[in-house]
Write a structure and sequence with these properties.
Helix content: 25-40%
Number of strands: 19
Strand content: 25-35%
CATH architecture of one domain: 3-Layer(bba) Sandwich
Distance between the termini: 38 Å
Shape: globular
Number of helices: 10
Order of helices and strands: EHEHEHEEEEHEEEEEEEEHHEEEEHHHH
């Protein structure tokens, strides 16, 4: 049966557009690919959210011509537990790498990928909202909000949405945490160093970005509500109390926004459809692994589909990705739960704090942690 396209990719965020471009780079004709997104390109490009890109993800983007873009380099990651002895410091030069990762804005990444993909000839429909889809024995029919329908032999779901609005997947956990995100400035910045500071309510991350830091502060919903309500000066004092004085004192903060945190993951696929990125696994933001895991999904799926575009490839993809997805989910889920499982001063937290020092001293464990964060699990 003739279809409009061989592959329809639902979601033209970084993971979806990277998949489309990777398919073309691997020999799939661009006219056989449809990329559908509800958001107009100019809206995506204006998105100011800060986003962490691992060194491995930067390598993927570089193969597409979507890197370098405007980004701040992370050469060190300092991990600690508030009110407890112990920390680990991961450095890029210990692995002979130029960086552990980078921090950029979502809009800059979206623009870089669009610039790289637009000359390839991929059929892009945006803004176009998918109102429904149906799968038959030989393909998928996708209904659009303008009344039109397109058909494809295979459909890839690459648009996951946020945890609070998603349908429940097989593995779901509400962390009872909300993330507060903003940009802050400090009096004594440390060049190219990111911080992950665990507290009794959740992790607090500071990522170097331009001349400031991207803040991701995870805590109980009631705590975040109080923090949002504080005047800037009082908020900065509270941030300094919780984070400490490693960066001097906090001098300014941008508009503060929030989102609910949870794990929602399932390696779903059918004979004709498969989910990747946030559509397959929504993670806690600790260690900044969500986008990077999604880009690895796109890389593997493109490699497999370029060789064989049959339904059997979707099952092969899920099996191939099982180890990396599983390891990354366990890592982020454990870090989100364990370090916030007891209050400051608890024995368990003292032992966890000491374990950070043990990781720092035990080089194989430290290397394993660093490589997982930079490249994912590689069998």
């Amino acid at each position: 049966m003739h279809h409009d396209f061989a592959i329809a990719i639902c979601g033209a965020g970084p993971v979806g557009i990277a998949l489309a471009a990777l398919l073309v780079k691997r020999g799939v004709a661009p006219t056989r690919i449809a990329l559908i997104d509800a958001r107009a390109l100019d809206v995506a490009i204006r998105d100011p959210r800060s986003i962490a890109i691992s060194h491995g993800s930067a390598q993927i983007l570089q193969t597409l011509g979507a890197w370098p873009i405007g980004a701040t380099t992370i050469k060190e990651i300092h991990v600690s537990r508030r009110a407890h002895f112990g920390r680990t410091l991961i450095k890029a030069d210990a692995y002979a790498l130029p960086a552990l990762g980078y921090v950029t804005r979502y809009g800059a990444l979206a623009n870089g990928l669009h610039t790289a993909a637009s000359p390839l000839g991929i059929h892009i429909l945006r803004p176009a909202t998918i109102t429904g889809s149906s799968e038959g024995a030989d393909g998928v029919s996708i209904q659009l909000d303008d009344g039109g329908t397109i058909t494809a032999a295979l459909m890839v779901q690459a648009e996951g949405g946020v945890f609070s609005e998603q349908d429940t997947k097989a593995r779901r956990h509400d962390y009872a945490q909300t993330a507060l995100v903003a940009n802050v400035q400090v009096s004594a910045a440390v060049s190219a160093r990111a911080y992950e500071r665990f507290t009794e309510e959740g992790p607090l991350a500071l990522l170097p970005q331009d001349e400031a830091y991207a803040l991701v502060w995870c805590a109980r919903a009631a705590t975040i509500e109080k923090l949002i309500a504080l005047p800037d000066a009082e908020f900065l004092l509270e941030l300094g109390r919780v984070f400490g004085a490693r960066l001097g004192h906090f001098t300014s903060v941008s508009k503060r926004n929030t989102y609910v945190l949870g794990l929602n993951a399932e390696a779903k696929f059918t004979a004709r459809t498969v989910a990747i990125g946030n559509a397959a696994q929504t993670l806690h933001p600790v260690a900044g692994q969500g986008l990077n895991l999604g880009l690895r999904d796109a890389l593997v799926l493109a490699s497999l589909l370029a060789r064989d575009m049959s339904p059997a490839t979707l099952a092969q993809f899920v099996a191939t990705r099982r180890a990396d997805r599983g390891m990354t989910i366990r890592l982020t889920d454990s870090m989100a739960r364990v370090f916030a499982s007891a209050g400051d001063g608890a024995l368990s937290q003292t032992l966890l704090g000491a374990s950070l020092s043990m990781v720092d001293l035990f080089k194989p464990a430290k290397r394993a942690l660093a490589e997982q964060m930079m490249f994912g699990w590689r069998a």
